[in-house]
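stuck on this chain:
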Amino acid sequence: MFHAQVRLQAAQTPHSDCPWLVMDERNLPLLEDKLKAWGWTQEAKAQRLGDRSESLLVFRPTLDPLSQSPLSPAPKPD
């Protein structure tokens, strides 16, 4: 159940329609290498107040150090 007005999408490379990625910390061992390859960098960790064993991770697009822009451009509309 979700209590926010968000549109959920499958994980993919960062683009303008998807500026942040949020995931359960328990999935990090399975996806960490793929997220790095796609261009995501962990920005924050939020623990659930009622259950300290449950945490959400927030990722932002990795920035290209030369241009200071996300490594992956937004996909072009068809």
